[in-house]
Amino acid sequence: MAIIINGKELAKKTRMELKKECDELKKKGINPKLAVIMVGDNQASKVYVRNKSRACEEIGIEYEEYLLPKETKQKELLDLIEKLNEDLSVNGILLQSPLPGHLDINKAFKTIDYKKDVDGFTPTSAGKLSIGEDTFVSCTPLGVIKMFEEYNIDLTGKNVVILGRSNIVGKPLIHCCLNKNATVTVCHSKTKDLKEYTKRADILIVAIGKSKFVTEDLVKDGAVVIDVGINRGKDGKLSGDVDFENVEKKASYITPVPGGVGPMTIAMLMNNVIKAAKEQNEI
User: Fold this and answer.
1) Of these four, 18, 40, 105, 184, which has the most CB atoms within 10 Å of its CB?
2) Is there a catalytic annotation at residue 119?
3) What share of the chain is helix, strand, coil (3-state, %, to 5)?
4) Can you give the pLDDT at residue 45?
5) pLDDT grade, residue 269 (50/70/90)?
C-alpha cells in the first residue's frame, strides 16, 4: 500500500510558516497585498476566488477583488491591469480564468507586470523557468515540487512521465522536473501506446481532466503517482484523474483527491505573494 501524500496537512503547515513571514514584513511596514480580477459569473471561479480570499485573511495578506461584468471589453480589462501594475501597494495580480470567449486571455497575461505575476503565467515568468532562473512558478506545479521536497522524493535521474501539456500545469512541470535533474517525458491526447510510457515511469504526474483515467495496469510497481485532476461526478462527488482505490495498491506514494494537490495550489499562491512583497521591497 502506498504512502498517502497529505496535501491538506502540508498546505496547513505552509500557511502557518507564511503567516510568520507576513507578520515579520508588517513589522517592517510592509503589507503584502493581492489583487484578484474576475470577469463574468463562472460559478467554479467564484468558489476558487472565495478560497483565495480566505487564505489571504488567514495569513494576513491584504486582499482586493475586482468583479467585472461578462460584457467587459478587452481595453477595460487591460486598463485595469495597467492600473494595478502602477499601484505600489499591490504586490501580486491574479487574473482568474476562464475569461468570457470574447476576451484574449493571453494578451491580458502579457499585460501583467512580471514582478507581480504571482500565477507565473506571463511569458517572462515562463521563459525564466525554462532556463532555470529564479522566477514565479505556476502554483500547481510549484505545489507538486514542494510535495516531493517534503516527502524526500528525489527526482535526480528518475523517469518522470507527465500526462497533460497545458500551459498552467503540464508545461511548467516539465521545467520544474528538469531543474530537479529528472528525465522527463510528456504524453498527451495524441500520444500512441500510452501504456508503454506510463509503465516506465518512476514518477507519474497526471493532469488531463478525465476521471479515473489512469488505472492500475498503466502504473509500474512502486511508482510515485501525483494526481492533479479534479472532476465532479453527477452525484456531486469529487474524483481525480487516477483510479485511487486500485492504483494505491501498486504505488509507493500517491496523492488523494480531494486533499492532495488542490490545497497546495492555494498555499503556493500565498507563497508567491509573500515572495513578490519581499522582492519589490528588496528584502
Assistant:
1) 18
2) yes
3) 45, 15, 40
4) 85
5) very high
